[in-house]
Amino acid sequence: MALTVLAPDPTGVPTGTYRAAVVHAFDKPLTVEQVPVLGLELGQVRVRIEAAGLCHTDIHAAHGDWPVKPTPPFTPGHESVGIVVELGPAVTEVSVGERVAMPWLGYACGVCDHCVSGWETLCLEQKNMGYSIDGGFGEYATAYARYVVRVPDGVDPFDAAPLTCAGVTTYKAVKVAGTRSSDLVAVFGVGGLGHLAIQYAAIAGGRVVAIDLHDEKLELARQLGAEFTVNAAKEDPVAAIQRLGGADQAIALAVSPRSFEQAYRSLRRGGTLVFVALPADNEVTLPIFETVLNGITIVGSIVGTRTELREVFELHAAGRTHVTREVRPLAQVNESIADVDAGRVTARIVFEP
Ligand SMILES: [Zn+2]
Ligand SMILES: [Zn+2]
């Protein structure tokens, strides 16, 4: 069937088709193409995208890396921010013209034990932006009004985009870690997530040691408040962190099981290791004996709730956090994925549609 290509309506409501980056097969690059504008269902809104961050999860989605795979064709993107241009039936939560963020948690049931106890991120009925719902790598996206989060005035949409996943995920990880003043927090991996984790750990009162393989990322870590840095390509991070007394909490953000094992061994007695990154290689080897005798806690942390994203935006609006990002046109999606995979990107890449 031939699609009619029409220019977007000047009021912002698209007609006919719009441009989006689409995954057709896990072993093929994304294609930027015209996709049809679909009708809005109950509770949905249409958002004109202003900014869409590139998260590692989008790359795993596009490659089909994880045990639960999305179904092509689909559009990635779960760090997107834009303006509401159209309301579907029964939407009361947001209005046309408001700026909203569309996080990974695109929908949850709202009534299960997880949802009603403040753990909507564990809802078994959840749908995820850029995975089971088309995401923000396009000119428009459709979202459930109840699960978008308003972006406060004064927060730049290109900052808001990385905060929508990298920000809320690391903010939650620091909460789950239980960081208190004077704790030593080891942040393994200073990328899109790590550069924000450092800031949230410092806001919580922690002293931060940042670990990465690239000196320029460690320089950024120091600028953002890390007191100590370790280049794990040149020095054993376990020995270096144990010389500091061991970490009270370690946050594993690098997509490498070896880095998770180093994070574990960098803990002091009674320490907590938070699993956040999701390497394609899904196994780590950790000792039982030391975990028991040293009273180690290991905890997984997945994104954050709408409330936590509001808190993240509030901190940013108050000038407490800095987002390091690089804006690129969406047409460069495949080159950008290659750059992130090769570790060539210090900052978060944020696409402009
Ligand atoms: Zn993400
Ligand atoms: Zn639920």
Topology:
Layout: E1 17-22, E2 31-36, E3 44-53, H1 56-63, E4 80-87, E5 99-102, E6 105-107, H2 113-116, E7 127-128, E8 140-144, E9 149-150, H3 157-177, E10 184-188, H4 194-203, E11 207-212, H5 215-223, E12 228-231, H6 237-243, E13 247-252, H7 257-265, E14 267-275, H8 288-293, E15 297-300, H9 306-317, E16 325-329, H10 333-341, E17 348-352
Parallel strand pairs: 10-11, 10-13, 11-12, 13-14, 14-15, 16-17
Antiparallel strand pairs: 1-2, 3-4, 3-8, 3-17, 4-5, 5-9, 6-7
What does this structure look like?
With 353 residues, the chain is of the alpha/beta class. 27% of the residues lie in helices and 25% in strands. It is built from 10 helices and 17 strands. Strands 3, 4, 5, 8, 9, 16 and 17 form a 7-stranded mixed beta sheet that branches. The chain is globular, with a radius of gyration of 20 Å. It starts with 16 loop residues before the first strand and ends with a strand. Bound molecules: zinc ion (2 copies). One zinc ion binds next to helix 2.
Strand content: 25-35%
Mean pLDDT across residues: 95
The radius of gyration over CA amounts to 20 Å
Low-confidence stretches: 1-8
Small molecules in complex:
zinc ion
Structural classification: alpha/beta
Helical content (DSSP H or I, runs of 4+): 25-40%
Distance between the termini: 25 Å
